[in-house]
Amino acid sequence: MSTDFEMICRVRQGPIRGASAGRRRVMANVITHRPASAAKPTATPGANILALDAFVRSVTVNAQVGHMLLLGAGASISSNVPSAANCIWQWKRSIFLSNHPGVERSFDELSLGSVQQRIQVWLDSQPRFPAADAPEEYSFYIEHCYPVADDRRAFFQRHVQAARPSGGYRLAARLAQAGLLRSVWTTNFDGLMARALAETPVTRSRSAWTPQTG
Fold first, then answer.
1. Burial 175-193 (b: 16+ CB within 10 A, else e)
2. CA 73 – CA 88 distance, rounded (Å)
3. What phi, psi does 110 have (nearest 5°)?
4. Is the distance from CB of 47 to CB of 163 less than 8 angstroms?
C-alpha cells in the first residue's frame, strides 16, 4: 500500500497558516524526535530530545505514524552548500580582493584565522561597515558585494548547481520510500531533498510524492 509523500519548501518562522492544531503538534514532535503518539521521554530529565538509539526504537514501534521531517540550512553543508557564516566570509573576501588586486593567492584558504583577520582588519577600517559578527552582516555584505539582484541569484545558483545530495538526504528519501516519512518541511531553496527523491523509486504526482509500488 503506497503512502502520499509531500514536499513542502521554504517554511518561514511563526505559525503555519491553515495548519490545524493537531498538525502543528505533529510538526513540533518531529522537531524533538518524538512521534505524536509516543510518551514523553524520561531518560534525560528536562530534555525533549531522545538519544539516537531511543529515537530508532521510537520510530520502529510507531512505524504506522506519518512522520514529518524539518530541515534547516545545516542539513546541506555536507552537500557542499555553504553555511550563512561561510557565505559572509566569501562576500567579505570578494570585497577585500576587488580592492586589493594581485593578492588573490594569499587569500585562497578562507578557513584560516590569519586570513580572516587580515580581511576583517581592513573591513573594520571602512566607514559604515558593520562590526564583526553583527546581526546585519549577512544582509549588508551580500548587498554590498552584489548590488545587482541577478548577481546575488547567480551566486547562490552556482553553489546549488555544484551541490550533490549527501548521505543524509539519500537516507531521508529511502525512509520516504519505506513509508516512514510522509512530509518534509525545509527552509532551504537548494532542492537537494527533491533531487534525492528523484534518485530513488519515489515519484512526484502534482503536489505529492508517492512511493512506487511493484
1. bbbebbbbbbbbebebbbb
2. 14
3. -75, -15
4. no
DSSP string, the chain: ----EEEEE-PPSS--TT--HHHHHHHHHHHTT--TTSPPP-SSTT-----HHHHHHHHHHTTTS-EEEEE-GGGGGGGTPPPHHHHHHHHHHHHHHHTSTT-GGGGS-TT-HHHHHHHHHHHHTSTTPPPTT-TTHHHHHHHHH--SHHHHHHHHHHHHHH----HHHHHHHHHHHTTSEEEEEES--S-HHHHHHHTTTEEEETTEEEE---
For residue range 149-182, what is the model confidence (pLDDT) as tens digits? 999 999 999 999 999 999 999 999 998 888 888 8
**How many residues does the structure list for the chain?**
214
